[in-house]
# Entry
Amino acid sequence: MNLPDYSYERRIWKIGKLPAGVDEAGRGPLAGPVVAAAVILPKECEINGLNDSKKLSHQKREILYHQIKAVAVSIGVGIIEPDEIDRINILRAALLAMEIAVKKLNPKPDFLLIDGNIRTSLLIPQQAVIGGDSTCNSIAAASIIAKVARDLIMYDYHNIHPEYNFKKHKGYPTKEHYEALRKFGPCPIHRKTFKGVIWK
# Structure
């Protein structure tokens, strides 16, 4: 995506700061972790086709995932498992995953651009950007890294629990997933506090 002159990233670069884009994947699923990514891209970096991961095909995400990893200054990934999601709730888990991802960055960013409308508790200047994964390159990159990283985890879980077909729906609430839950009940990676997971 081509950044306009007034974009958040350009503003931050112009004052000599190093921004990191932050996003997460997996708030809505009934199973599996929530995964966040933080990405620092080189200044004025343009990656053809970069966009919100939800607007990209699986194949395009895979290609961009490797392109981002090849050019990024730094990438951090944070993962919060289902039992912790059940313990602290999904919103707090997503924020915690973001904070873990940011703390893994080297060099450390001077500013965070976070997709959505909620900021982290990190003591780093930050801006929540609604729709940021469609308007900020670094947030779009983070959304792709988080989504692909989570998909890879769910492929592994499919091999352990093939009866749920996680490789297809990645734990999201689909008709097929609900039918499997009715038949087999929840497995260890299901989020027990989510509606529809426990059938009585």
